[in-house]
Amino acid sequence: MVMFNFKTSSSSGTGRDHNHSGFIFGIHLVVILIIVFSSMFTSVDSSFEQVKVTVINNITGNPFMRIQCRTDGEVLDDHPSVAYGESISWDFQVDALNTTKYCCVIQYNDPNDGHLIHGDFSIYEAEKDLPDCGGNCSRFVQEKGIFFHPTDANATLTWPNPEAPSVRCPFRPAPPPPSAPLELVGVSTKW
């Protein structure tokens, strides 16, 4: 670091050398603060990352799946009925604090007896999912639950007990009415 030696003159005309340790301390402090702040923003650099989440209907028996997703205060525009083997996806940017979270209500009619299977799931949480799947996260919906990796033996999220309310999503979207079985024809995508 460069040290400065200032010479000042007094009113009597005699010059004096001053160490100016306060000035040097101030320069050191500024340099340290710049390093600290730049390292903070470097560690948050993974935030603001563009992420794509894909939810795939892998439910055996080929039932159609309904899905409605939202993040805090925002409902996704498209709420389709998704056929077996098809998917929906959306892109977004992770917030600076890694608190981005998406919850989805997913339902389908059991192909064996027709009863409604329904659950709300935390499909994406930046704090845990960004390190796990980076900018491309896939979710596989099956009769055992939601799988985050296609080779997993156990579901990451299981279908909730219909008699116990779920508290997984603090901003849970309202479920679609379960009155009619899900069908491709005549199913409204606005629920």
The SSE order reads: EEHEEEEEEEHEEE
What ranges have pLDDT less than 50 throughout 5 or more consecutive residues?
1-13, 38-46, 176-191
How large is the radius of gyration? Answer: 28 Å
Query: Helical segment tally?
Result: 2
- Helix percent band: 10-25%
Distance between the termini: 65 Å
The proportion of residues in beta strands is 25-35%
Give the mean pLDDT. Answer: 73
Query: Which CATH architecture of the domain at 50-158 would you pick?
Result: Sandwich
CATH topology of the domain at 50-158: Immunoglobulin-like
Report the oligomer: single chain
Instruction: Report the CATH C-level class of the domain at 50-158.
Output: Mainly Beta
Number of separate strands: 12
Which word captures the global form?
elongated
Could you explain the architecture of this structure?
With 191 residues, the chain is an alpha+beta fold. The protein has a domain at 50-158: Immunoglobulin-like (Sandwich). It has 2 helices and 12 strands. The chain has helices spanning 21-43, 126-133, and strands at 6-9, 15-18, 50-57, 65-71, 74-75, 81-82, 87-93, 101-109, 116-125, 136-142, 145-147, 157-158. The strands form 3 sheets. It has a 5-stranded mixed beta sheet. Strand 8 and strand 9 (116-125) form a beta hairpin. The chain is elongated. Residues 1-13, 38-46 and 176-191 have low confidence and may be disordered. This is Plant self-incompatibility S1. Pfam families: Self-incomp_S1. It comes from Macleaya cordata (Five-seeded plume-poppy). The chain crosses the membrane at residues 21-41. Belongs to the plant self-incompatibility (S1) protein family.
